[in-house]
Amino acid sequence: MSERYDVVGIGNALVDILARVEDEFLAENGVEKGVMTLIDTARAAELYARMGPATAISGGSGANTIAGLAMLGSRAAYVGKVRDDQLGAIFAHDLRAQGAVFETPMAAGDYDYETGRCMVLVSPDGERSMSTYLGVSEYLSPSDIDEGMMARADWLYLEGYRFDGPDSHEAFARAIAACKRGGGRASVTLSDPFCVDRHRDAFRRMIRDDLDLLFANEHEVMSLYRTDSLEAALAAVAADVRLAAVTVGPEGAWVIEDGVRTLVPTAPAEVVDATGAGDLFAAGFLHGLAQGREPVTCAAMGCVAAGEIITHIGARPEVDLKALLAGRGL
């Protein structure tokens, strides 16, 4: 039998194209500062042509988590849709170079939609202005789900952003069923309050009926339960799922296990760029579970990983995460 995976992730497959620009560039090109805007193919090509020197790395929230897991030493794999084009090759190569398995068949080179990308324009003050073309990533389908791979996953990690695709709900259901048949457990990250608004009933049903672990931040979980009270939202979470990790910014994260709530603090850090903090928190937490750690310890590991990410530009660690955790006694 093939080797099992600690975690298999499913979500968007995007290439982040990062470039430093002056504020004048944003104004001249109609880019709203500090905001993520969805764009089409033509706009993506236009911006790319006008950008200066740039760095391209595999991205997307779920892919960031899987890359973090691979860096920590977990056996990790990812499922996300790219096209057989230049950026698709960059995505596949970069994720594999981190140590993750990526075997999702590429869409043909003449497919209607190109590989998704996010133009990340970084201003002198560190603010990130993002223009995102989802491309073929949006069209992940049930046929892209390798049930054999899902059945070999100890944990399945689903990216909430991918709930927006036309066939994503069915793809997720297929992956969860195969994972459970193989003895694995399933988790989801809610990704964004507006994503929750669009799919609240489906998220609630999936969390209550099919999932073992929920990741969210305070804004997402309050959106999920239509409340302005974090206390009420945490109580509702405890009634719906056995295990949850809810991040609360600089305060740390609430761990809810079998109805028992524990606040795990995070170490103070200078915030340069919060992008990717939730992604790496999930990576640290899931890695801890893969190592057989208790959930409260897993949350501490997640807080350390997230704390590293927020100190620099970009959603990939700039230090050895394993050594960082070891230095904190984790």
Low-confidence stretches: none
CATH superfamily: Ribokinase
Q: What is the CATH C level class, in words?
A: Alpha Beta
Question: Which assembly state applies to the chains in this document?
Answer: single chain
Count of helical stretches: 12
Count of spatially separate domains? 1
User: How big a fraction of the residues is strand?
Assistant: 15-25%
Enter the CATH topology name. Answer: UDP-N-acetylmuramoyl-L-alanine:D-glutamate ligase
Strand order of the largest sheet: 6-5-1-9-10-11-12-13-14
Q: List the secondary-structure elements in sequence, H or E.
A: EEHEHEHEHEEEHEHEHEHHEEEHHH
On the 0 to 100 scale, the average pLDDT is 92
Principal-axis shape equals globular
Give the terminus-to-terminus CA distance: 32 Å
The helicity comes to 25-40%
User: Would you tell me the structural class of the helices and strands?
Assistant: alpha/beta
Question: What attributes does this structure have?
Answer:
14 strands; 22% strand; 12 helices; 330 residues; 5-stranded mixed β-sheet; globular; single chain; UDP-N-acetylmuramoyl-L-alanine:D-glutamate ligase; alpha/beta
In short:
With 330 residues, the protein is of the alpha/beta class.
Question: Explain this structure to me?
Answer:
- With 330 residues, the protein is an alpha/beta fold.
- The chain has one domain (5-11, 61-103, 136-327): Ribokinase (UDP-N-acetylmuramoyl-L-alanine:D-glutamate ligase).
- It contains 12 helices and 14 strands.
- It has a 9-stranded mixed β-sheet, sandwiched between helices. It has a 5-stranded mixed β-sheet with strand order 3-8-7-2-4.
- Helix 8 crosses helix 9 (230-240).
- The protein starts with a strand and ends with a helix.
